[in-house]
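Quick one - inputs below.
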Amino acid sequence: AQSVTQPDIHITVSEGASLELRCNYSYGATPYLFWYVQSPGQGLQLLLKYFSGDTLVQGIKGFEAEFKRSQSSFNLRKPSVHWSDAAEYFCAVGAPDSSYKLIFGSGTRLLVRP
Amino acid sequence: DVKVTQSSRYLVKRTGEKVFLECVQDMDHENMFWYRQDPGLGLRLIYFSYDVKMKEKGDIPEGYSVSREKKERFSLILESASTNQTSMYLCASRTGGVYEQYFGPGTRLTVT
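Output:
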């Protein structure tokens, strides 16, 4: 069965610093990969997704993620963090043979220091 | 823009009460979902509906039921609320054949 691991529960960065949030998945083939963001008191918003092709994908709000098959990873990055990026971030996996289900990681809470 | 709305942002109920959480989407999506979100556990799927009157159990269906009488509306029912059902409940929808799900703002339910 597929699974998703986000090893960092909390991350704190200074405003203007770069950011990388880690995501590792377990699945026999290449799954469909997603990053969602949840601002305080809000539902989840899709940041970006990877299905196939170019392994570096661009998303909204200046985020990007890179799929690395050899490491079973799909890490989220942003070159310069803004205070408004403080939120919880979820990585999710959708297996092609489980067409309706997304498996979510436990989330990483990002705190931004002024 | 896809809009998924949930009937309440905050709800407080007593143990043993029957609780209804309502979700409405305005994009004619075939599929709708109910998740439960708890700290450190991420989102866990309670129930899924792939069409009107069609439903499937997710990973944690115990203590919950669902109803989908109209395409745009998906209800989560707690037949007899218990304190361990205190949580954030998120509804989502998507069109068939794609994976992206669109989420509502969530209902924070407290059972006392």
